[in-house]
Every structure is written in C-alpha cells, then in structure tokens.
Q: What sequence folds into this?
C-alpha cells in the first residue's frame, strides 16, 4: 500500500463560512507581525535586547555616526584609567593621533587626515577615576564629536573591560565617510586598532611590530 | 643579509635584503645556524595561502645563536636557541592559559584587520607565514628579529647537535600535540593520515603516550617505510580500500582516535578531492579535505578527531552527520609550542625521541629554491630539507 493512500482523505470545508473570517484573522496577524518587525528593525535604540547601542544595525543617530569597541586587558582598572587620563600618552597607541596638548580644561588633538591634519578641541564632561572618562568637542573645534571610555572589572579575574564609544559628524557627509574608509582613516577601524594597541602596551609593555628593523 | 624570499607561485629566490635590527625592548636578533623547509611552506609555495607578498622572507623552523638582545630580553649574546614558529607575548589571557598559538598580542593591530572578519577573532603572529599572521620576516635567512624573546626561544645546552633539536621549532611539538589531542588510553588504536614529518612525529608520540597500535595511511613507499620503522602498521591508499581496512584492522570497531596530518592539499583521485582541487585552483578559498572526511568516517563511535593539518578556508561535503551521530570530538589548532618545548627537549636528551631520521637532504641556504622545488615535486624521497646559511 502506498503511503499516500494511507493518509485520510482531505475534507473540503464549506466555503465562505470558514474562509472569510480565517482570511481576516490571518491578515490581522500578518499586519501585527509586520508592524512589530518594522519597529524592531528600524527603531535601533528602542529594541529591548541586552546588546550595547553601538551594535545596532543602524549606526547613525540624528546626523551622528556612533561607533564603539570593547577590549579585555589583563590589568587593573586604576592603572588603565591613569594611562588613558593623561591624554599625552594617547599617541603611543593611537595611530592617527599625532599629539594631544592640554591647557586649562581644553585639550587640543592633532589628528592625521587624508590631507594634512585636523584639530579637535575637547573638554572633559565626566571624570570618575578608575571608571569613566567622557569628553565633548568645544564650539570652535574642527570636528563635532563626543566620546567616552569606561573601565569595568572583567569576570573571572580576566582584568578590565575597556569600552570606548565615540559619536561624531563626519565632515563631507556620505562622500567623506566613503573617503575615510578608502584611505584607512575609518574611525571604526581606527578604534579597533587603537584599543588593540592599548592592550598590547598595557599587557606586554610594547606595541607589537613585524618590522625587520 | 641573504634570505629566501617569495616572488610568486612556485618562484622563490635567495636575495640580498637589509639586516634586521632590534625594534622593541623584548626583541633579540638570532644568527641562524640551521633552518628547515616545512610541509606548510609548500602551501605558501603553491600560492594557496592568501596574504603572501612578493619579497616576504619565508621560513618558520629555525635556530641559531643570539647576537643581540634588547633590555627586556632574558637571552644573552652567544646562547644557542631554538625559536618556536608561534610568536607569543606570554601575558595575555591565552598565553597565561598555555594557549600560546592563540596569543592576542603577537599580531600587529593593523594586520589583525585581515583575519578578524574571516575567522571571528584575529590570528596570532607566526614567523614567515603571510601577512594574515603578522607579516613577520621568517627564518630562512642569515638573521632573524625575534619579538618577545623572553617567552619563545628555548636555550639549548651544550652537547646537542643542531639537527637533534631544530625540530623543536615546529614539527616535533606539532606531532606531539596531535597525539596529545587524542587523549590516548591504554589499548587504543590511533590512525594517522599523512606520513610527512608531522604524521611521523605523531606516530612516534602516540606510541610514547601508550597507544597499543598506530596505523599510518599514505601512498609514498619511502614515507610508509619510515612509518613502519617507527612501529606503525601501514595502509597504502592506492592499493587498499582504507575505510574497510581500518574497520577490519580494529576488529570491526574503528580506530579510537584519528589524526589528519595532511591538511588543505590532500592528494589522491577520490571524487570529492578532484572537485576540491578544481575549486582551490580557481580560487574559491576552498580547502581540500579528503583526508579529514575519511578520518571522520573511519573513527569509532565516541572517538576523538585530532587535526594538526593546516586549513584556511571553507570545506563542503563535511560529514557532519557522521560527526554528530557518532558523538565524535575534535581538537585542532596551531601548536602551543612553548607548552611542550621543555618536556620535549628533555626527552631528546634522554634519547627517548630521535628526530634526525627524518632529514633526507642538507643544502646551503643559497640553494633553498632548489630545496623547495624538489620537496614539492618529489615528496617521496625529499622528506625533510635542512638549510645552512
């Protein structure tokens, strides 16, 4: 006996009596589903998962591009905070930061750019020793940006999780973003490299290089 | 200095390049006294590893004498050392857990961009093995700059010849870890695919770890002879149906552990291997995995799969069903050389392990290109080439 002949014969429903309401219910469910999907898909900050905001599929918020990156470093919060708080140390591990000069409460960053360099002026807006440093650009800065680096204990004695978050308005809009990517000055890539170099420096005492000499 | 450099597929040459110098405090400069061509160098030679550039100095099996050491190095001028092919900082999460080949810090940050999207996390640094693993100038040269020289190099005591200890740099610990990854228990049968240097050292190691029987699979008569001399039973896959033979040689059970010491350039005319070869040649980033597929099919239920063979890309027709339904476990990875160096050096001194039987040819560094060509085209007679600068 074939498998098909063992299946019960399909019964034809009384058309109209069932199909109408079923169609309506189906369409309503589909509508609700789509609405929920739409909301989660495009309301980046509104989604209720536990992931950090900078991992949202949407990466620009009100004209700002937001990037972030974490790294776990086998060192205590205090020494990592101290190293970072002295902005003069940053060029040791930040590839594109040529110099940081601080006068009063304003720091002036000289940052390598595809043509020459740009100057960013920032002011500290939050400073909690061993926990967090946040800064925001001043009115007369070349680039409109704000950033934060936070330090928290990693689980299992692994050291400290260092998380950097930066929001900025890319000069030149979409064209500028494309150019930055192509010239290797994409801030996302820079943040990733810089945090890895910070880790190298703090764990091994040197920034790794494969140079022959 | 003189060094073997990559020019293009099947074109390597000994060129004059600048001498290395100390860059970081923990560096040392080694004057190479002996270096070898590794089977995995042939993957570079064949152009199947991406990220190799013209002018790159190859070689990751080398030893020599310390001629300069930075203030952070623990080495002293004049010491003889063997240098692990894996570069490890000794202080990151992985190094602290003896997972030296997973070091977070040894690959320069700008080179990590290449492998993070490819593998999920960035690879560690290796000597002379493409820019994916750091772009470090390799050891087939007169001099090498060795980073983190306080962690990697092992100092060799007087009374041991270069050839007795050179293979501590890679293939001996790699064969040892391959066997270690099998969790061998008394009475176990271990099957090893590939009787190249790593396969042969895996056979030797499995025996020392108490395997009752080791069965080696290859097709080169000379290599099968070497395996037999180490006490293995052998299967020539050209004349024997491998799966059936392994089942019969293990009383219908299958080997307790299997080792794929072949890697991404599997030989043979099996249908899956022909398809893989075509894909690899047209550049699909495909690996040739015939040996691995066969090893998984052969392995007994609840058995262990150890994979020292090198892979870089993707594999299809992976016998995932057999792997799951039989409840297999797999362990693999680049070798955590530093974890094994001391113990293996001790075993060499005690005469428990001999590595010199492997060396078939000795050439001056100047003839390195000839060594590559022959090692590549005549694998039966050319089992291992040692170069002397």
A:
């Amino acid at each position: 006996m074939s498998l098909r002949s063992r299946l019960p014969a399909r019964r034809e429903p009384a058309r109209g009596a069932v199909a109408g309401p079923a169609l309506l219910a189906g369409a309503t469910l589909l509508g609700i589903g789509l609405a929920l999907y739409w909301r989660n898909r495009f309301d980046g900050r509104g989604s209720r998962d536990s992931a950090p905001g900078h991992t949202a599929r949407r990466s620009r918020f009100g004209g700002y591009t937001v990037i972030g990156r974490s790294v776990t470093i086998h060192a205590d919060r205090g020494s990592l905070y101290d190293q970072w708080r002295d902005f003069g140390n940053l060029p040791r591990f930040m590839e594109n930061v040529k110099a940081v000069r601080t006068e009063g409460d304003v720091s002036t960053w000289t940052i390598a750019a595809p043509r020459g360099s740009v100057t960013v002026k920032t002011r500290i807006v939050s400073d909690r020793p061993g926990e967090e440093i946040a800064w925001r650009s001043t009115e007369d800065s070349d680039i409109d940006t704000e950033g934060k680096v936070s330090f928290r204990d990693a689980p299992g004695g692994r050291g400290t999780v260092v998380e950097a978050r930066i929001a900025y308005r890319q000069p030149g809009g979409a064209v500028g973003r494309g150019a930055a990517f192509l010239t290797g000055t994409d801030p996302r890539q820079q943040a990733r490299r810089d945090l890895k170099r910070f880790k190298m420096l703090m764990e091994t005492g040197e920034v790794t290089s494969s140079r022959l000499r | 200095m003189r060094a073997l450099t990559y020019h293009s597929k099947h074109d390597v040459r000994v060129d004059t390049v600048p001498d290395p110098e100390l860059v970081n405090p923990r560096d040392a400069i080694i004057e190479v006294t002996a270096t070898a061509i590794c089977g995995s160098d042939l993957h570079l030679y064949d152009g199947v590893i991406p990220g190799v550039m013209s002018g790159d100095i190859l070689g990751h099996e080398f030893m020599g004498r310390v001629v300069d050491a930075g203030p952070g190095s623990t080495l002293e001028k004049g010491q003889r050392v063997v240098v692990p092919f894996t570069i490890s900082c000794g202080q990151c999460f992985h190094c602290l857990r003896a997972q030296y080949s997973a070091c977070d810090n040894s690959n320069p940050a700008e080179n990590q961009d290449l492998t993070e999207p490819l593998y999920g996390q960035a690879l560690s640094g290796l000597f002379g093995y493409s820019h994916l693993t750091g772009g470090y100038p390799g050891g087939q040269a007169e001099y090498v700059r060795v980073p983190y020289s306080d962690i990697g190099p092992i100092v060799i005591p007087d009374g041991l010849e270069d050839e007795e200890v050179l293979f501590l740099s890679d293939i001996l610990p790699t064969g040892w870890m391959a066997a270690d990854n099998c969790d061998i228990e008394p009475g176990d049968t271990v099957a090893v695919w590939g009787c190249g240097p790593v396969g042969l050292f895996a056979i030797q190691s499995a025996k020392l770890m108490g395997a009752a029987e080791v069965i080696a699979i290859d097709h080169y008569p000379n290599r099968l002879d070497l395996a037999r001399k180490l006490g293995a039973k052998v299967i020539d896959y050209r004349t024997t149906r491998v799966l059936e033979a392994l089942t019969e040689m293990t009383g219908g059970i299958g080997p307790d552990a299997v080792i794929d010491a072949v890697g991404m350039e599997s030989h043979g005319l099996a249908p899956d291997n022909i398809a893989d070869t075509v894909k690899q040649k047209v550049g699909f980033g495909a690996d040739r995995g015939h040996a691995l597929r066969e090893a998984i099919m052969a392995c007994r239920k609840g058995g262990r799969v150890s994979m020292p063979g090198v892979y870089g890309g993707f594999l299809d027709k992976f016998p995932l069903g057999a792997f799951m339904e039989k409840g297999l476990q797999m362990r693999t990875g680049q070798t955590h050389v530093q974890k094994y160096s001391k113990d293996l050096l001790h075993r060499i001194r005690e005469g428990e392990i001999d590595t010199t039987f492997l060396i078939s040819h000795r050439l001056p560094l100047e003839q390195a290109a000839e060594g590559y060509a022959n090692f590549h085209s005549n694998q039966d007679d050319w089992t291992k080439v040692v170069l002397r600068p």
User: Anything to note?
Assistant: Chain B has a mean pLDDT of 95.
